[in-house]
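Handout, section 3.2

Students often ask what a structure token actually looks like in practice. Rather than define it abstractly, here is a full record for Ppx/GppA phosphatase N-terminal domain-containing protein. The first block is the sequence as you would receive it.
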Amino acid sequence: MKKAIIDIGSNTVRLVIYQLMNNQYKQIITQKKTVGLVHYIEDNQLMPDGLKCLTETLCEFKILLENLKVQKSYYFATEALRSILNQKDIINHLSQELNIQIDILSCQEEGLFDYYGMKQSIDFKAGVLIDIGGGSSEVVHFNQNGIIQN
């Protein structure tokens, strides 16, 4: 079984495809496209050129997912779409145009996923994780018991 995660960030849209092997998901494909959504935001709204660029990128990724027979895809967005005034219009357009569902992560959810991703690859007992993105930064303080503050 193949699953994909598509992360719509302020500067890049990132696609990672995983395949289930021996009861574990293994990363098999990673692609990243620099879209620069943050540069298409004016007056707290994503401008039409930004929506066009995002739609084209997600369409390319969706075609790849279909060609590779990926069974489940998870689309999520962070600060670039989280803070804009026309968020609902953008999400509705992408949903209708591409037949996809995009979840907008809160700052807390983004920090939580950063923490879980870090724990999958590095086993720090305690520390501070800082995700410096193109539109926001998340800070997660953790110890051996989990997250202390996010």
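Discussion prompt for tutorial groups: Helices lie at 48-67, 79-82, 87-98, 107-121. How would you have guessed this from the sequence alone?
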